[in-house]
Amino acid sequence: MEKVFVHPECPFSVETFNLLSKKYAGQSPDFYIAHTKDRLKYVEEPLNYILSQVEEQLPDFIKEYINIKYEGFGSRTAIGDLKPIGYSIVVYLKNIISTGRCISRAQLRLNLENQKLTLGFYSQTDNFEVLKKKRIYPYIFHKNLIEPLTRYHLPNNYSFSLTQETTDFKFNKWDYSIIAPEKNFHGLLIDIICSDDPDIILSGLKIKDTKIQIETSLKSQELLRYSAKKLITKIAQAFKKLFPLFFIFNFYADNKYFTPIILGEYLSVYEKEFNPEYQLEKISKITGFETTQLTQWIHAINRKGQTIIQGPPGTGKTFLAQKLAQHLIGGGDGFSDIIQFHPAYSYEDFIEGLRPITQNGQLTYSIVPGRFLEFCEKAEACEDTCVIIIDEINRANLSQVFGELMYLLDDRQDTKRFITLASGKLFRIPTNVRIIGTMNTADRSIALVDNALRRRFAFISIYPNSEVLRLYHHREETGFPVDKLTSILEDVNQAINNKHYELGISFFLTKTLAEDIQDIWQMEIEPYLEEYFFDDQAKMNEFLWDKIQDKLSK
User: Fold this and answer.
1) 151-178 in b/e burial notation, b at 16+ Cβ within 10 A?
2) What's this model's pTM, rounded to 2 decimal places?
3) Looking at 93-97, 297-301, 354-358, which range is the least confident one?
4) Which residues, including other chains, have CB under 8 Å from residue 473's CB and lie 6 or more apart?
5) CA distance linking residue 383 with residue 369, whole number of Å
6) DSSP state of 153
7) Which residue of 84, 226, 253, 452 is surrounded by the most CB atoms within 10 Å?
């Protein structure tokens, strides 16, 4: 039998699912009595601990409206499938206000079942028409909710199904294996109210039961690779994102304006907890790159897990990296960070190493985590994408800085890949981490990026783009003769005749360029060109400030 990998900080164990498997095999009541301690140790206690921590992470706004009910081991769900469950925790609406006649039973729930953990949203109603008119219509047509519900996206990789049972048969209306990331709450609610099937209507059948489910499942082997911190965050974030559905399907008051206002308040709370979305169209407008090109780069970053943006100086590599990071973490709970490598940067700085620490006046040495290890430990607690930008990545000795991290950069989706650090800690790069490096191709230390490292990264090459320079000065209305400047830059780069050393445009992206151009050219451009044309003074003389000034003034 294949050995199952278990994260050292996972709250569950192989015994958890062995016990559940035996339960599903139909053991006698004596079996449950004999395994009471095991049931508490391997199933109930870890699950109850997780939910107590989930409650701590939920906003007070949600806590105000919910009750959490723990359903015991071996019980049946109050609603839904008739099959027995291993252990279920259900979030119900708190009875703090009259909700009218019960036309819908909606809940957020967590089921630890045989060989999997399932979490998500569940609703069941025996009057689908009333549900649509009384619970959904007031929200999707409320003028103040259309925009926020459109911005509000469902969790990624959650299955969605709407099942209707008629007087004669069960009819599966939808069964999406994955909800597309662009599927927002407003679009979802529109789909639900437009879900009447003409075949059912024409046949005169009556729908007696409608079930709607949005959920995801972690199979036992995948779940066992989760740390408690990551699992708690995943559940809490799912409940936060699905809460509007829970609220809409449960809450109906006599005043039709009351509940939309409350929901609007929650959406404002939600948007403060998650990063604002940053669209590729906005990046395209700022950088001049086509959205199709940006989409390809985002795909490469997500596919490979780590990417290096390379190009000559002044092409906006770091700026682009920051904008791509904003897009990657947009709409989620992740974060981005930036560090810059230099020749003295070491493995101890990046991963972990001995550091002198003063305690009670005594100097001691302890193993202290480096920047990347700290970043990954923080990212482990996030459900969504986290991005670390390594600026000037090729200025450090990468083989020395990365060390055995090279092993983890391969096959990033393999959650079994761990290394043992000097401290004895098991470490892997969380699957939600993305690494974006920037590399100046004019820097001779590029030779330090060996082939072993190169094959582990996707490379994005960018070069000077005169159109971006034109767009910037036209947009900012600087009045600078930008067309003459771009012509000069084209002449300079043609003289350089090496794409890795071309002169970029970022030197000139300033609103006060008319006042600054002489300083920029004499103090930043000329020193760079002097080094490149050190053996060709005649060519260098062509690009001295007095001649450039004449060309700009003509």
Assistant:
1) bbbbbbebbbebbbebeeeebebeeeee
2) 0.72
3) 93-97
4) 480, 482, 513
5) 22
6) B
7) 226
